[in-house]
Amino acid sequence: MPGSGAGADHLGPTADPAAAARAALAALDQDARGRLLATLARRFGDLDLAEDMVQEAFVQALHTWPRTGVPKVPEAWLHTTARRKALDVVRRQDVLAQKLARLHLQEERQPRSADLGDPADQVADPGQLDPSGDDRLGLFFACAHPVLRAEDRVALTLRFVAGLQTPEVAHALLVSVSTMQQRLIRAKKRIRTLGVPFEVPRPEDLVDRLAGVQRVVYLLYAEGFARSTGTAHRREDLTGEAVRLARVLHQLLPQTAEVTGLLALLLLTEARQPARTDERGRPVPLPAQDRSLWDRALIEEGTRLAERAAGATGAGTFAIQAAIAAVHAEAARYEETDWDQIAVLYRLLEGRDPSPVVRLGRAVALGRARGAAVGLLFLDQLADDPALARFRPFHTARAVTLEQLDRHEAAAAAYRRALELPGNQAEDEFLTATLAGLDHGAD
Description:
Helix content: 55-70%
Distance between the termini: 68 Å
Radius of gyration: 25 Å
């Protein structure tokens, strides 16, 4: 049993202390890592330094915890260790005095042990790491700062705030990995050079900065909704974090139509999560989903917010998307879906955002409303778009539409093309099974 004093802040010994240390670090979720990075970035104003010191803290833990035991609050230990290491770097820089003055650091007055021991001893309350989410939110706003290019804002935030790997960010933004690597390097350099603050903007600047932050939250949810890589189809940690951040934004600006619309959209989409995968984790298409599994509480909350957003001044793309999601949620059965209304909403959405993905959504809606032949006509008009050419959902939509038209050979070719493009393993299994059934039916 743990006793009093410093030893009380560590878990008891195990047969393999090194394995226990590795397991404790592996158990830290993406949100905890994001909080560490955000707190250090805000404190030192340097994203590269923050990232490097978080990594060094993990390495230090692998050396220290097998001797001292795993702390009861590993995140607090890592935070204190990373902060100390960052201070050591700052002390070696010529601008030491200026940085110490700006950060109001007092570590120079405190005695330091030669052995790190357990830095978590100095953290009275683990909640002090991120008491209200402001550090994480501040990092969002820094990455969406107007001095950055629009595409760099989204890329930087997905990589360092959401914690996605570079290939995942590249897929989310429909660019190559090499292009994304250069974009991230450029964005970090600009933040460092211009001294962009890692904090929530002043109230008078908040509204103007929201568009970039909302876009990032949306893409974060999209990556969790259908993973771009890996074995699982979805990542509930990402969708949960996106919903949390959308709620924070809504608390800050509850009367803003687009903030309300974004939260409504995510809640209505999240409500379908229990029915979106089968017992093997493979995706279940919308027509085949068991709607009794949909979360009615989230649907009710999301529908209320969608109605509020639609009737508010300044309603835009997120309010329209929330309205589309609400139409889906209103249908007790797939056959009862009002596709005509969805097609109209997509036309409004395309007028504001004529992106390839929106145009794809409208083509699918028109096909459902007016028949598969019409849908195929609109889909084929998008075939020359280079972004959609490497976008798996486009080819899957064509395959489904061709199958509805009994053009099985062309449908099989579209399914094969979809399988050639990036996606998660669960999707691969679903597409492979669908293709096998199609080929068998053709026989």
